[in-house]
Amino acid sequence: MNPFRPDIPPHVAEVIRSLHPDLKRSIKSAVRAIAADPASCGEPLKRELDGLRKYRVRRFRIVYAVDQKTRVIRLMAVGHRRHVYEELTERLRRKR
């Protein structure tokens, strides 16, 4: 089966670029693992972030959405577990 194609928006790419090289390598490896099998990799999120999934990489989280029809994984956020969910929730609220 073909892997999913990751879609990394500019604001997420900027965060990844700013990370320490070791962490950046781990994040990129995690994105490849998610693209290979997004349903079994992450855990579903709840409440305001319902419909999104998270994947743990050390103390960081990758939050992503899966589009089965187009076979695309959209990275919504990458950040430290302490604040990534609040920042993403706030950004999604502003878009509405």
Overall description:
The structure is a single chain. The protein is α+β, with helices and mostly antiparallel strands and 96 residues long. The protein has a single domain (5-95), classed as 2-Layer Sandwich (YaeB-like fold). The protein has helices at 10-17, 21-36, 38-41, 84-95; strands at 5-7, 43-44, 53-57, 60-67, 72-80. It has a five-stranded mixed beta sheet with strand order 1-5-4-3-2. The radius of gyration is 13 Å and the shape is globular. It starts with a strand and ends with a helix. The model has no long low-confidence stretch (mean pLDDT 88).
What is the total number of structural domains?
Answer: 1
Strand content: 25-35%
Point out poorly predicted stretches. Answer: none
The outline comes out as: globular
- What is the tally of helical segments? 4
What is the spatial order of strands in the main beta sheet? 1-5-4-3-2
CA-atom Rg in angstroms: 13 Å
The overall pLDDT average reads 88
The largest sheet, given as strand count, sense and whether it forms a barrel, is: 5 strands, mixed
Q: What is the assigned CATH homologous superfamily?
A: RelE-like
List the helices and strands and how they pair.
Elements: E1 5-7, H1 10-17, H2 21-36, H3 38-41, E2 43-44, E3 53-57, E4 60-67, E5 72-80, H4 84-95
Parallel strand pairs: 1-5
Antiparallel strand pairs: 2-3, 3-4, 4-5
